[in-house]
Structures are given as structure tokens and as C-alpha cells.
Amino acid sequence: MSETYDLIVIGGGPAGYPCAIRAGQLGMKVACVDAWLNHDGSPAFGGTCLNAGCIPSKALLESSELYHRAQHEFAAHGITVEGAKLDLAQMQKRKTTVSRSLTSGIKMLFKGAGVVGYEGWGKMLGDGKVEFTAHDGKTETLTAKNVVIATGSAPVELKKIAAFDNDKIVDSWGALEFDAVPGKLGVIGAGVIGVELGSVWSRLGAEVTILEALPNFLPMVDEQVAKEALKHYKKQGLDIKLGAKVASAKADKKGVAVEYELDGKTETMQFDKLIVAVGRRPFTDKLGAQELGVKLTDRGFVEVDSNYKTSVDGVYAVGDVIGGAMLAHKGIEEGVVLAERLAGHAATVNYNAVPSVIYTTPEVAWVGKSEKQAKEEGFEIKTGVSSFAASGRAKALEQAVGFVKVISDVKTDRILGVHMVGPYVSEMIAESVLALEYAATTEDVALTMHAHPTLAETFHEAVLTVDGRAIHGINKKK
């Protein structure tokens, strides 16, 4: 027996489940198929983000930060903490509770939007047919007018260099599941995932070394901000080796021996655990995409046009699987926009205003163009920088480090990009995204009152500094 729908979404992560919910809100009969299984065998919607990425990693980052502050910062506030002990089992239990409280909520959201959730694998058969295979092996055929591929991404494995063994050599998910703090921890890759995971275990007592093949740190971030972040990470004890190209990683009962080349010399380091965090790849396993004729790029991403339509009629794709910024919020917006377009509404994603965040301490956040990108694209620019050292709120938090940098167009005064490093900039960046979305000028923000004392004032001061109008900061000499 075949169940018929208006829309079938294959993948229940940040791109898939919002697409399904929005389509249901718009009156479509919708099914969402997701194959995720947690390590304990329990199925869950939410994809990598809610189960093994964004949410559990932020839970551990918060817990490890509190542990670190109790040991090193509370005394400055007049709070003496004696005998602070780490209960890693409880920390991990809390992380899992936070994650599963959100994944279980998706089923309630489905119910409210009239979406039918299927836990298992979905394989496209053509003509709108999808073969659903439950985790117990039972199969049935679902049919729909349109099918959406939202199967996300998976960690890249260095099979010839550092193959995962899920014990000594792990991916980003495995790095969130350690039951003991490694004495010496190695991380391959100094990107967002690498520095966040490195920070978690460093705060908890591990000696962390991060090996990055590229010569520059966080090349996607404005260079000035990246240098500031690197300075603080090293000060905190992260040993970040840039230009270190890993040749091999061999695990045994003692740990992992990693051989790498740096400055023309071959070096070897021994670690208790090794995290491989060198990026993510599109996940299309068991989907039947290629058999159906769905075109993929050389890197395996699903090719789509400006309407997220694939090479096969009635088949669309959104999220990590189509490439671009592999960010949950970008996937959410694509899923929602696609649902609205399928319902006949006008909707779009502004890819020039996609924020990015690194949840370390200090945090790093950015949106729009860096100074280098703006110059390479031919803009005549003006910049403004304001330090959190001048912020009363940052001082009260005992976190007066970092700064905000604003890049604007000389000819139009429009803000082109904002890059931040400092306390809670993950929350502050929202105002900058809104500024880019509405094509705000530096004058627009300069004339906008900001509450005092707040961290957001530092963004305001940076905007004022662009035109030499800063009140609490240092203006550039003309």
C-alpha cells in the first residue's frame, strides 16, 4: 500500500524538518523521513546539529567554561571556590539531556503542522516514489508530487592518513562522547569545529595540540580578528601549529602516534586521543540520487538551480548537501524558502548576510565581507575598530578582551561586513546581520541609540569610528 503526500522531505536535520513544518503550515500534506540513530540505538530527528554537533557541543562548551572560570576567574569577583571537582559523567549526562529535549520537541512541532515523521531510510525510486525502510527492516512505498533532499553532511575521513577507529581516532561526534579527559589530545584541523572541541577538553585539563595544514589561521575570518583570536587561544594553552601537514596517524594500545611535516622537518607526537576535524562532506548514502539521474558536483554535492531544483523534475535539495556555508541556520532558511516557493509564495535567502560564529572564549562572529575580500572585489573601503577594553559591561563581566571591526563602502556608506572577537559576540552579531539585510549605512547605525552599559555599544562605537566620530574610543588620524 502506498501513502500519498504533496511533499516528502528526506532528512530531518536543520534544513529538512523546518522545510517540512513550513510546508505543513502552508496546507501541504507532508512526510519527513530521517534515518538518524544515536549511539544507544535510539532514533531522533534533528540531524547532526541537534544530536552530534551544534547543540551538544555548545552544552559542553558552556559546562567546561564554567569549570574553567570557577578555577581561574571567580576569585576576581570575590568568590572563593575550594576543591572544585570535575564530574565528567554528569557533564555528559546534562549534554545529552539538553540535546534530547530539543530533538523530542520536533515530533511535537510535526504534530502541530500536520507532518508525518518516518524514522528510517528513504530511497528515491523516481516518479515521486520513495522507498521507506524502517530501522526494523520493514519497507513501504511513499508517493509525492515533490521530493526534497535534505540529507545533510558527514565528517570527512582521512582514510589513508588517519582512519576513524571510534576509539583512539575519532570524528567530531566521537569527540563529544569521551568518558575521561585525555591527558594529551591531538586535533587535525584548526577550523571552527577543531578549535571548539580543542577548547572544551583544554578547559577540562587536557594538553591540546591542533595541527593545521594551512599557513593562516581562520582564513574565512577578517585577518585582524583571526590574529586576535589566535593570540587568546594560545594564551589559554592551545598549541596551534599552522602549516603542519599530517602524514600519518597510527593507533595502538598506548595511544596515537602522529607524524607531520612542519617547516620542512618531519615531527612525531604521541596523543591519547586524536580528533579529525578537517571538514564535512555531502551525505547521499542509500539515497538513490545517482541512480535516478540527479546530478552531483565533482565533490559530491547535489547540483541545484536558483530555485533549489535538481536535474530531475519534482526533486529539490537544500542544506549542507548542496554546498555553500555548512551552517544550520543557512539550511533552515533554505528549507523554509523552498517550502514557501513550492506553495507559490515569493521568498529568498540573502547569501550576503549569513552569520558565522565560533563559540570559544573569546567568541568569534562575523557576517559579510572581510577587509581583504572587499578590497579584492574592488570596493574602496573605510574601517572602524572599537575595543571591548573600553566597555563597562565587558569589564563588569571580567571579559574585556577583543574588539569589533566594521568595513564600509566609501562611495555609498553601506556596511559591507562586521567581524567580532570578544564576549558574547554570538548574540551581538544579530544586529550586524540585520544591518546588512536592510542595506544599512554606517550613518544609520551611528544614529541608532544603544542601551548603556551593554556589549552592543562596542558595535556602535566601531561604526562611529569608521567616520572618526567615536566618543569612547580612539579615532583614526585623518
Automatic annotation (TrEMBL):
- Stored Pfam families: Pyr_redox_2, Pyr_redox_dim
The identity of this protein, by name, is Dihydrolipoyl dehydrogenase
The answer on whether this UniProt entry bears the keyword Disulfide bond reads yes
The molecular function GO annotations come to: dihydrolipoyl dehydrogenase (NADH) activity
Q: Which cofactor does it need?
A: FAD
* InterPro entries, alphabetized: Class-I_Pyr_Nuc-Dis_Oxidored, FAD/NAD-bd_sf, FAD/NAD-binding_dom, FAD/NAD-linked_Rdtase_dimer_sf, Lipoamide_DH, Pyr_nuc-diS_OxRdtase, Pyr_nucl-diS_OxRdtase_dimer, Pyr_OxRdtase_I_AS
* Gene3D superfamilies assigned: 3.30.390.30, FAD/NAD(P)-binding domain
Cofactor: binding comment: Binds 1 FAD per subunit.
Q: Subcellular location, in the record's words? A: Cytoplasm
KW Oxidoreductase (keyword) present: yes
Location of the Pyridine nucleotide-disulphide oxidoreductase dimerisation domain: 354-462
Q: What class of enzyme is it?
A: oxidoreductase
EC id: 1.8.1.4
- Which PANTHER family is this protein grouped with? DIHYDROLIPOYL DEHYDROGENASE (PTHR22912:SF224), DISULFIDE OXIDOREDUCTASE (PTHR22912)
Occurrences of domain FAD/NAD(P)-binding (ranges): 5-335
Q: What else is known?
A: The active site is a redox-active disulfide bond.
Give the top-rank taxon of the lineage listed in the UniProt record for this protein. Bacteria
Q: Family assignment? A: Belongs to the class-I pyridine nucleotide-disulfide oxidoreductase family.
NCBIfam families registered for this protein in UniProt: lipoamide_DH
Q: Which reaction does it catalyse?
A: N(6)-[(R)-dihydrolipoyl]-L-lysyl-[protein] + NAD(+) = N(6)-[(R)-lipoyl]-L-lysyl-[protein] + NADH + H(+)
UniProt keywords (A-Z) are: Cytoplasm, Disulfide bond, FAD, Flavoprotein, NAD, Oxidoreductase, Redox-active center
